[in-house]
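U., I forgot to send this yesterday:
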Amino acid sequence: MSDRIVRERNLVVRHSVVELAEHWAIALSGLALIVSGMFQLPMGSRYYINTVPGLAWSADYMVSLNVHYVASFVFVAAALFHAVYHGLRGDRGLMPRKGDLRTSIEVIKSFFGKGEEPPFHKYLPEQRLAYVGMAVIIAMLIVSGLVKTYKNLYAPDLNYAVVLWATWVHNIGFVLFVLAFVAHIGAIALKPNRPMLRGIFTGAVRLDYAEHRHPLWIGEIEGERPAVGAEPPASPPEGTAALEEAPVAEAAAESPQEPGEAGGESGAAAPEEPGESKPGSEKPPGGSPSQG
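Result:
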């Protein structure tokens, strides 16, 4: 988990670089799929979009189809990477929890001044519900899109019923994806949710906002690891300090110092054995500096 607190900058890291790359790869390729899909209807020439500078290609069906294929490759790759990467890591933060629907209703009521929001984890309950809904929509688009692509490239005589079902599922998925896309933008535009907008671009949100609205998430972070930038502990744990200081105190109590040893080094105070004295030394054998 990349979540960590940076107190000196009043920030909490909410999304890793990998998560930001996943989000923007799906968002931008999804937007390209919406636009290129509408141009194939064809809307480019019907509504004179092709007259807009830089959008003349919108009236060309084959160009729009190729743009759709390229965007779909990025879209499918990002979606599969997201599923495999977070599945292997065991990330469950966006999975719905018991009571999310009831709590989501309470949150929506609080937007209109009815009641107060409960304390949140990292994600809001409505985010967890929307995540599952978006996953279902994306699965519908990918499966039906693969069938349509297979029919266009390799099997033009594919069973008509299969093609019809794939087309209907793809069209319904397209409408639902557009509605979910608009709802996602609308949710982030709500005043209580605006502080989270920063996290979509930088990966971090303000710490004071998170402590106020997501105290359960902050508690999880502080319980797992020390905060980045937090003050280090002023002293070692009491038990360790007691074990380290106790022998020193006992030794001091048992061996009172001679007046001449006060402030001296331990090597100077230790008496030398008679056999260790060097020839020519002025110090008498067996004597100590304090006694001499």
